[in-house]
Amino acid sequence: MSRKMALRRLCAVAGVSLGVFTITTAAAHAEQPLSDAPAQVYEARNRDTLQTHLRTSESAANASTPNAPSYSLYTTSILQDLHDGLETMQSSYFSIWLGKYTTAIDWTAAVMATHVSATLASLSRSLTYTMPGTFDKSKNLDVEAQMVENEINKYFGQIATYYFGEDHFAIRMQAYDDILWVVLGWLESIQFIEGHSAEHYASGSQKEAAVPEWHARQFIPAFAHRARIFYEIAEKGWDWRLCGGGMTWNPRLLPYKNAITNELFISASIGMYLHFPGDANCAPFLSQYDDIKDKKNRKPSDKLLRAQERGEQCDENTQTESSYDPVYLANAINGYDWLKNSGMKNKQGLYVDGFHIAGYRTNHSKTECDERNEMVYTYNQGVILSGLRGLWEASGKQTYLEDGHELIRNVIRATGWTDGQIFAAASTHPEKPDQIPESHRDILTSWAGLGAGGILAEACDPSGSCNQNGQTFKGIFFHHLTTFCKPLPAVPVRLGRTYAASRETRILHARSCKEYTKWVVHNAKAALRTTNKEGRFGSWWGANGHAGQILRVRRVANAMDYQNRPDEYSARFEEEAHTSDDAGGAEDEDERLAGHDMTGDHDERDDTASRDWNDRGRGRTVETQGSGVAVLRAMLEFERLGQSDDGGFVP
Ligand SMILES: *[C@@H]1O[C@H](CO)[C@@H](O)[C@H](O)[C@H]1NC(C)=O
Ligand SMILES: *[C@@H]1O[C@H](CO)[C@@H](O)[C@H](O)[C@H]1NC(C)=O
């Protein structure tokens, strides 16, 4: 992308008025005296930097496109909110000396780091400078570029720290979905590094001009190694015997073939195909069971630890495949074929949680997935989207994009969103979605399956009973939605391996995605309204519209909330526990229990006058913050679609 295009993209958000964007964390922060704490001074100063820099860009844009309307303050204000959300997340919840999100559990930490990488990629694309620059102190742009670059480096430093703080030995012993979040996280980070390098540092012919490469590139082999190791562990979760294929959730529990593990496998497989740069590091690793002497405590053996510490590099002959390995592509295609035909969608066109095999506990010869858990979560509608986008790019088959758009529309409809013709009826989906029967609408009379009033919500949100799992899901949905709606390439990224879109396809995809923008913005603004004085996001974005109402979403028949209700989880899975000493609950059992302590019932007795609905239950956490960051980033990227010409779409 040319510098000029970047400027224009940043500065010409068409058709959006400034006035409606009222409640922001920036406003909350601004009221605090700057002298209070050094951290706040730094944060505030930094916000100024971003703003000044963007203003500079604006005047440049005015010069190059004199007649373009300038709405850049709107974009600037989204960028500020996004940056504030990120800064709050990292300063409140990330501990550098440990390299950890101290209150997260392993899988949610992996997702948080993913949000950081993705957000940095968005910030990087918003800014226009080349490093190292001439650094002329009299030139504003140079000074500002250095400051913004410094900010990006600060957060990248935290990602690098997290690489070492991530408890990767523990995660190897966890369920396959836990393992796959790690793969997605490091692939995201690699993409950010590649993107930031390409936009702001030497590339190609420029290399001769003695411009150095960005220092973060030195981490790519390490990140790639971890992605590969975790992918190869997870790959073992695929099984053809039960349910005719698909990934198993957790090898230590009764068989459960669920949406999330399969969606993750599809997205991770296609991510490895498209973005894995190869791995020259053959330091040994062992799978979940291999060579674990102390199975009960699930500790890696000394041999494994020593091997890992040596970190041996292999010679060139034993290097693993580089990118575009057809095995990854085949895994993604198989995975989606199975998922699509598994019957895992309900009448609203949403993925339910998964399948059990009835009677398996007493008869291990049974293989048919015939017991469906009707529970619907937001993240089960999300992760597959980036997989579908990647499958299109690797195969050129348009059905993958069509499936993605259909799912997105089903989700938007299931939030009760009625604005816009396309959501009135699904033309691609002749079967009418079920109306929510009267008897099922107890609290939120408008509860539509995945939210109310056009705002995405988890079923546990209104009662404040989400645990760490549930608090993470909406952010995951928006992260993958954003990936799905990236403009399609007009030329193949890699000739012979990936596909480009025809002009017609690019226009169609871009036009469809632009139709979602209003809904995305509606959700992001709702999320912003839940921030408290410290700028921390709440979990239930729809809270403000429902003050005074209580607040429990009626459960659909046969819907078991394993993710937020430890009682249901253990009832279903732990019968097996005493027949095998290797079985056990999830890695975060304690957290699940803790998260369930407070329910909506408890709060009904509270004084409602000064209540913040989002202080109930687990309250504000790193997970709710990460979700807030993800929906703000979605707003930024969707607003950009309106000015992007990558889609070849000129209104
Ligand atoms: C750019 O142009 C817009 C609209 O003409 C104007 O409102 C704005 O102040 C200009 N910005 C700068 C920095 O000159
Ligand atoms: C176990 O399941 C298999 C496959 O459904 C069936 O053929 C067999 O009769 C079952 N055995 C018992 C003891 O129910």
Offer a quick outline of the entry.
By secondary structure, the protein is mainly α. Helices cover 48% and strands 2% of the residues.
Describe this structure in words.
With 651 residues, the chain is mainly α. 48% of the residues lie in helices and 2% in strands. Mean pLDDT is 77; it is low at 1-71, 287-295, 424-434, 436-443, 577-609 and 645-651. The structure holds 2-acetamido-2-deoxy-beta-D-glucopyranose (2 copies). One 2-acetamido-2-deoxy-beta-D-glucopyranose (NAG) is lined by residues 363, 365-366.
Largest sheet: 3 strands, antiparallel
Structural class: mainly alpha
- What small molecules does this complex bind? 2-acetamido-2-deoxy-beta-D-glucopyranose
Q: Might you state the CATH topology name?
A: Glycosyltransferase
How many DSSP H or I helices? 20
- Please give the radius of gyration in angstroms: 24 Å
Instruction: Give the tally of structural domains.
Output: 1
At the first level of CATH, what is the class? Mainly Alpha
Number of strands: 7
Mean pLDDT across the residues is 77
How far do the termini sit from each other? 21 Å
